[in-house]
Amino acid sequence: MINSKFLFVVGVGRSGTSLLQSMFAANPSMVFMPETAFVRRYLATGCLGRLHDKQGKSAVIECLSNDEAFSRSRLDISELDRSVFGPGQSLELSIYRQMIQAHTTTDTSWVGDKDPRMIEFLPLLSSLFSNPTVVHIIRDPRDVLLSKKKAAWSRKGHVWKHIFANRVQLKLGRMSGQRVLGRNYHEVIYEDLISSPHRVLSTLCEEIGLPFHDDMLAFGEAAKKLVSESELSWKKETIGPLLPENKEKWKAGLDDREIVLTEICCQEAFRVGGYRLDDRKPRLSVFDKLWIVSGAAVIFVADWPYRLFRNYRVWRACK
Is pTM beyond 0.85 here? Predict the structure, then answer.
């Protein structure tokens, strides 16, 4: 168990998690670690412990040394405390403790981490930390889709896949967050954040017990320390300045069929975020209508089995 005031930022990819992370990182009371997805990729799988049991310490060091995301932690894996590899403890959790210690001091009151896809693993956070705080940021799913179509890491993915991810991840995050974390689970609407940052951040800080600081509105320098050069092509807006008009770009950027399919499949996001359906009359061909029906069928059919599979895997990881 890690006994720290711990905050985790999650959300469907391209929903503004990096922006929110940077705002929190600019708060003098908080230290935010660079994004490594260590909890999801290693703590949730236990793969390092199995690798150590089979091939020893050197294999673990080699694995992490070749992990580009892990290198952002600035932790020298070759100099890890020997106790990390001791018997009777989780190797992954011991390494994660070392990562936290590398970024904090005895005066640090809050430590934060961020991984959008941890939205699917929230019960695991509850099992690892003492009263963790989770902030889930929600954005118009049509703008999320447009952003994913442009980002280097996601633009090759099929539109159906992106819409499916938005649907199931929002459901998993909201259901498990409210059930497992209770009052430690918080939601922020992206559009509210960029239009009224002071009001949204000060209210959020009051809710979670973190002192609000005006530096959170001047987050550019904090962002530069968290965003790697390889990520700048799709995270440049994180550096600032804040763009209050960065919304509803889907109206010019998405095809009519993409808008219709998103509105059909992501109804919970529209309800939670208060987003209005497109009132323009779509121009749909017979092929477009067939594409929409087929996509909706695939997404709806895959929804429940995927969530069942994910919940089972998370339950196994928590044991």
Answer: yes
